[in-house]
Design brief:
Number of strands: 15
Helix content: 25-40%
Strand order of the largest sheet: 1-6-5-4-3-7-2
Radius of gyration: 28 Å
Largest sheet: 7 strands, antiparallel
Strand content: 15-25%
Shape: elongated
């Protein structure tokens, strides 16, 4: 009588592989695969250039921001350490002295400072950490079919950035800059703020009541994920200096079309929407005083004297009092579009200076320009008439040149 076959015997005797079961490979990349792929771009850059990326252009800025973000995330470092051939993440530290050991004591095991007491709340998250937590927790992968329309849009934005038709600016001021339909860069990743569902609530503070805006957003990321994180969490995450939050400007044609259509459609029932202003600094700082023809060109929805009453405490005014040189009432004017257009037109003569506010934060004002006042007056007139598209500014001669 034949010996009964076991299951092992049956599988081992499967000469034609009939019983083989091969799992179907998913075409969707896992989160780790996308992470490794994104890090490999940085490795490739290092191999080609023999250096880390720098903030010299849009492409390098994205890689640099991504590298910083990865280097600040222990979980991602752990995933990538096998692929970090050139120690770009700094995970493989060489210990040469006792000092190196002490400096690398992340858990504080070697601390002897008695000031580390129960009054130091080690595990209570800050508001920035809570915002970051909300940001990470709310992200989820999109289906390929769902992401397809956005993918082509992101490619178009990258092309416009490379060609200089869009620019990157440091993120600030949610009320003015956090708008549905706009693009931003966070840790080197492009994101699209598709929708905002904002509600305003009155909150009580010791200093008095104030209105606070918050609500859910719909954000699409170029890596195929999306989020419905809170408006205020997005704002805090973009403001966090470790995240390199950036605003992606609108294209020149978008700015001009909306700006001129609104300005040229004034009706009898319309009311002024704000004021364009030109200011001169009263700073005693010799570096500022020594710059001739330095003016701030901006826009305010409140009367200019009210807007500048705290100028000496605001970095945007160089932490000094200012003098009003010109002020123009405007109708149907979009503040962001106006400021973007001015920045583009006078971009080559924009003051490049970092100002530290009273909280120690470093801010780069964007609305100060080194240009003669008569030229500014003419440019504002051309903007309001819509004729600015036919002109350009020549900084070598300080003159407007007709195209």
């Amino acid at each position: 009588m034949d010996k009964k076959k076991t299951l092992d015997d049956i599988f081992n005797d499967d000469e034609f592989g009939i019983l083989d079961s091969k799992p179907t490979k998913s075409s969707v990349k896992s989160e780790d695969e996308r992470l490794i792929e994104s890090f490999q771009e940085i490795n490739d850059f290092f191999i080609k250039n023999n250096r880390k990326p720098e903030a010299t252009n849009v492409t390098e800025f994205k890689l640099l921001s991504r590298l910083k973000a990865l280097g600040n995330d222990p979980k991602k470092i752990d995933v990538l350490k096998t692929y970090d051939t050139y120690n770009l993440l700094g995970a493989n530290k060489e210990v040469k002295s006792v000092s190196d050991i002490l400096q690398d004591d992340d858990l504080g095991i070697l601390d002897t400072d008695e000031t580390l007491s129960i009054f130091k709340l080690e595990h209570v998250p800050s508001s920035a950490e809570r915002a970051e937590s909300d940001f990470v927790a709310q992200r989820k992968a999109m289906k390929d079919k769902e992401f397809l329309p956005y993918e082509s849009m992101f490619k178009k934005i990258h092309k416009e950035l490379r060609e200089g038709d869009r620019q990157l600016f440091a993120y600030e001021n949610a009320d003015k800059n956090l708008k549905a339909g706009s693009f931003y860069v966070l840790n080197g990743v492009l994101l699209y703020l598709e929708d905002l569902n904002i509600e305003t609530e009155n909150i009580s503070l010791p200093s008095g009541g104030r209105l606070r805006k918050d609500g859910r957003t719909r954000i699409i990321f170029e890596n195929g994920t999306m989020s419905n994180m809170l408006y205020r969490s997005l704002d805090k995450t973009l403001l966090n200096s470790a995240n390199d939050g950036r605003i992606v400007s609108h294209t020149t044609s978008e700015i001009e079309n909306e700006l001129f259509n609104n300005v040229n459609s004034i009706k009898d029932e319309d009311k002024e929407t704000g004021w364009i202003y030109v200011l001169k600094s009263k700073s005693s700082n010799q570096e500022i005083v020594s710059i001739q023809d330095l003016y701030k060109i901006g826009y305010s929805t409140v009367p200019v004297p009210e807007r500048i009453k705290n100028a000496s405490k605001e970095p945007t005014y160089l932490m000094a009092e200012v003098r009003i040189v010109e002020a123009y009432k405007t109708y149907n004017l979009n503040a962001q579009k106006f400021e973007n257009l001015v920045h583009r037109f006078f971009g080559e003569v924009c003051l490049n200076v970092d100002i530290t506010d009273d909280k120690g934060r470093r801010i780069t004002p964007r609305e100060w320009f080194v240009v003669p006042l008569p030229v500014i007056q003419k440019v504002i007139s051309l903007i309001l008439s819509g004729e600015i598209v036919d002109w350009r500014y020549d900084k070598s001669t300080n003159q407007l040149i007709e195209k």
